[in-house]
Predict the structure.
Amino acid sequence: MAKKYLIETYGCQMNVHDSERMAGLLEQAGFEATDADDDADLVVINTCSVRERAEEQLYTRLGHIKGLAGRTGRAPMVAVTGCVAQQEGAQVLAKSKLVDIVIGTQRVKMLPVLVAQAEAASQPLVDVATPYDEPTFPLGLTRRDDPVKGFVTIVEGCNDYCSYCVVPYTRGHERMRAKAEIIREVEELAASGRREVQLLGQIVNHYQAPDDPACDFAGLLEAVQEVRGIERIRFASPHPRHCSDRLIAAMRDLSKVCRHLHLPVQSGSTRILKAMRRRHTREEYLTLVEKLKTALPDLQLSTDMIVGFPGETDDDFRETLSLTEAVGYHSMFSFKYSPRPNTLAAQRMPDDVPEAEKTRRIVELQALQKGIQASLHEASIGRTVEVLVDTTSKRRAWELAGRTSGNTVVNFPGESSWLGRFVPVRIERAGAFGVWGQPVQAATPATEVTTC
Ligand code: 5AD
Ligand code: SF4
């Protein structure tokens, strides 16, 4: 009987995609997926360490597995992968006797080999090597459960070393994937019927093709636009510093590039941005937003924001609030600062904003943001938007959801067979996290619809 695996994923889209890759590798090695941990022979915990809370989840989860093994008398093999694995290496083994394998972020491809070796070995295995090479991954192997959209990695790692961020230490130096391989993977997605591609990287717009010196990120978007069958192109995340006029023009001119940009800002105060080593000021960011809004009037923006960074005063925080209002984000991920290992901020800047004050600031920021997005959604009532259906309800066959080009979640009644199709929907009702509407005709691409 085939052995069963379960992968648990924490963190960002990069981790979600690594889990898809590991699932494909394990299936090629003869494993079958299960979603019950008491049924699994192998549990892979794909970890995140970008914030302290995310890291703690690993040890909470290992505690659950230990409890389960105690009750059932059956202990699965446990592999820890992802950013905590890279960061802690063999220390993970010292903290938990349950763990059999620790695999770093640049060794994902080794998973089946290490599983086989660990079965034969009496010792746990650790592989957190960081070979300095181009990121490649065999085509056709990734297990993709989303029938509508697919991730394609274009850049791995980061050289920016923002002072709060652990990513350069956990994901390593920036490495660009070959354009030819990226395009082949996008073609593979299209051939499998997927309509949307999401290009992934820590700083996607720093992309420079290693196999085509003339191709930058705008050039890559142009190449992806040419892939027949792909209807929508998204990417995450761009850095404000690399949003060139050429890129803005490409976004404007390429019909498949979605009218949504996740543009992390992190703070509204130039003083704090400097301490964060973000390499952009508040003013430069706001100028860029104006440029983007002029070139792409229907563009919807989202961002990441940190509150309570070392030295952040109430005045700095007010600047974060005023920038939030000035931009009018359609959504925001906001976080309380937590010191991360090896980072400049953790080493040199005392974490001096009290926890209660961080909480007060994030609550105020989130309340402001919720009001902004609710009113943006409210303003869309009466419009007809084009929705790519990506979700059907498990409970009610007629409940569908999808996203607009601008990334607004739209809920509406329809048929489950519309999954993966474009539907024009008239918005009738709005809330802070999405809108509700009625399809204006059957699921065929419409001509007279707005994109946001
Ligand atoms: N503390 C809080 N938030 C952080 N982020 C990254 N590092 C930290 C940290 N030390 C946030 C940033 C980043 C997002 C992925 O996580 O906003 O864009
Ligand atoms: Fe981290 Fe800054 Fe690199 Fe983003 S750009 S991954 S925040 S170091």
The first helix runs from residue 13 to 28. The chain has a mean pLDDT of 93.
